[in-house]
Each structure stands twice: as structure tokens, then as C-alpha cells.
């Protein structure tokens, strides 16, 4: 859980979202967006809020990341 932070690029943007956004090229446009981050701390992929947590492709990507 996080406190409310600025997601959009620019002055005041959260360091976390600056890091994730510059590495994936995507920032959340709405709640429930997801980033998949590898064991090394590097972002692997971004998933929009329309992707459900149980989505098969998301689950497969998580499994693959865990296997590395």
C-alpha cells in the first residue's frame, strides 16, 4: 500500500513512477494498473487496469519471472 502520490510525469512525480515509467514507457492512466517487476528489481512489463489479476497471460508472465 502507498499513500497518494503523483503518477504523471513532471515536477512532483513520485520517484517510483518515474523509475517504472521510464523503463516501461507506460504510466497508469487509472487505478488497478499493474507492473511486473523481476527479482532483480527491474520492471518487466506493464498491464493496464483492464487486465484482470487472473488473466492467463499475466499469470504466465508471473510464472516465467518467478522461474528465472
Mean pLDDT: 95
For the terminal residues, how far apart are their CA atoms?
Answer: 26 Å
Largest sheet, order of strands side by side? 1-2
Subunit arrangement of the protein? single chain
- How many strand units? 2
Percentage beta strand: 5-15%
Largest sheet: 2 strands, antiparallel
Fraction of residues in helices? 25-40%
Query: What is the H-and-E element order?
Result: HEEH
Low-confidence stretches: none
Helix/strand-derived class? Answer: alpha+beta
Specify the overall morphology. globular
DSSP helical segment count: 2
- Alpha-carbon Rg, integer: 13 Å
Nutshell version of this structure?
The chain is an alpha+beta fold and 68 residues long. 32% of the residues lie in helices and 13% in strands.
Structural account:
The structure is a single chain. By secondary structure, the chain is of the alpha+beta class. The protein has a domain at 30-67. It is built from two helices and two strands. A two-stranded antiparallel ribbon has the order 1-2. A hairpin with a 5-residue loop joins strand 1 (34-37) and strand 2. The longest helix is centred in the C-terminal third of the chain and has 12 residues, at 56-67. It starts with 14 loop residues before the first helix and ends with a helix. The model has no long low-confidence stretch (mean pLDDT 95).
How does the SSE layout of this entry go?
Layout: H1 15-24, E1 34-37, E2 43-47, H2 56-67
Antiparallel strand pairs: 1-2
Q: Main attributes?
A:
about 70 residues, alpha+beta, two-stranded antiparallel sheet, 2 helices, 2 strands, globular
Amino acid at each position: 500500500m502507498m499513500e497518494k502520490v503523483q503518477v504523471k510525469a513532471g515536477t512532483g512525480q513520485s520517484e517510483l513512477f518515474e523509475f517504472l515509467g521510464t523503463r516501461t514507457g507506460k504510466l497508469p492512466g487509472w487505478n488497478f494498473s499493474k507492473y511486473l517487476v523481476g527479482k532483480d528489481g527491474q520492471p518487466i512489463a506493464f498491464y493496464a487496469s483492464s487486465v484482470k489479476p487472473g488473466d492467463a497471460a499475466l499469470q504466465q508472465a508471473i510464472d516465467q519471472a518467478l522461474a528465472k
